[in-house]
Amino acid sequence: MAKLDVVPLTVDRWRDFERLFGRQGACYGCWCTYFRLAPKQRKANSSEDNKAFMRARIETGPPPGLLGYSDGEPVVWMQIGPRADIPEFNNPGRVSAPLPDGPADAAEIWAISCFFARRDLRGQGLSHQLVAAGIDHARRNGARLLEACPMDRSKQAQSVGLFVGSTSVFLKAGFEQVALRKAGRPLMRCVL
To answer: In terms of domain of life, where is this protein from (predicted)?
Structure first.
């Protein structure tokens, strides 16, 4: 497993983010807007619309996530920040909806919602390093709770379908299941 240098995604790192996501914008042009935009808007948007949305979000700050570098190359991304910054993650109909003791509008309630890794490095444990860095990042920035809604398993360890992360990664990082609204998709929490 490569040792990562993990840093917040700021506008000066846009080109690295763009290089990691590629021309299509990762995950079929999503540009990590899945939990940021309502489904109707996402469907209407082009990949370029999503890219512009994410660029504007990065420019306004604070950093919406963390970039991981290996040997100076951007290789992995994790979206992390206050729940309020990812409105669709909080939708009452989703398995990731907040619990009463962790409201979405509370600045100290954070979530890890998405991952993206370079295809040739998937399944090599980089997400473990990212989650550890994310816990430190959240704690330094005033988070009290850090939540995630991963999946127990995917058909393939390298599947892009694991964009929400793997339950085993969060368990190893000290997260505990706090709700189960759909089999295989636990809502997990780390108390900081």
So the answer is: Bacteria
User: Could you give the 3-state DSSP secondary structure of residue 191?
Assistant: strand
| Cα distances (angstroms) measured from residue 69 to each of 60, 101, 120, 161, 183 | 23, 35, 14, 22, 34
C-beta atoms surrounding 14 within 10 Å? 14
- Domains held by the chain: number: 1
For 47-89, what is the HEC assignment? HHHHHHHHHHHHHHCCCCEEEEEECCEEEEEEEEEEHHHCHHH
At 150-184, the pLDDT tens digits run 998 765 554 456 688 999 999 999 999 999 999 99
* pTM listed for this prediction: 0.92
Q: Which domain, by its residues, includes 99?
A: 5-191
